[in-house]
Amino acid sequence: MTIEDYLAQGGKLTSPGNVPPRYRGELLRLMATFVDSELAGSAGFADTINDAPGIKSRIAAARIVLEKADHAERVLKIMAEFGANTDRYEGVHPWTARLARDADIGASRQGGDMRLSVFHYPLQGWVDAVVMNVLQGAAAVIQLREFAKISYQPLAEVFRAVAPREARHYELGCEGLAKIVETDDGREQARASLAYWTPRVEAGFGPPKSTRFDTLSRFGLRHRPNAALLADWRAETGKLLSDLHLT
Questions:
Q1: What are phi and psi of 29, to 5 degrees?
Q2: Contact 159, 134 (CB under 8 A)
Q3: Residue 245: partners with Cβ closer than 8 Å, 6 or more residues away
Q4: pLDDT tens digits for 114-165?
Q5: Considering only Cβ atoms within 10 Å of each terminal Cβ, which end of the chain, N or C, has fewer?
């Protein structure tokens, strides 16, 4: 049995020494995207802690900042086992760097990192940060369900460990958004932020038909296509926003 047949039939790999070159490249790409997105997300959200309207929300924001950095560190340790240059993550990369608010980059990467495109846009105040956290948090929960089943077992275990914490980040965002929409002004601000962030988060799912999906599927690094993940996200966020009377 070839390694691709083994993986396509649900086989698992457990160490860098068993990994073929193409698989290694795809796995490192996946890990870099996760690490860079977590670090950029953590850095961006840190600036909003002082915008939080109360102690409970400040604690929630600080928790999200801390745990996202911790999640990045866990995956970074696995990248190091593959010989990746992890030194660039030790304070050298500008994780707080953002593009102009009106930039339109679609799903393309920018600069020298692999963060999802949504993390290149700046946050504007507390309401904007909460809305972005809700939309991207729902996307993270869905993506982590996918990552928890990948064929590289040590990484799948890390993703299964961090998934409940990312789900809690999403829940904290939902709680914050429910509080915001209690006032007319908060509701209007939330609607404006939803209009801004929704297409940018959707872009993070990639094109509906990815040319890389077949390869990733053969390697056991993806199981469901982009269109299916995006449909799940739309269903999840659609129900939430309907319950909050934001649609």
A1: -65, -45
A2: no
A3: 181, 187
A4: 899 999 999 999 999 999 999 999 999 999 999 999 999 999 999 999 999 9
A5: N
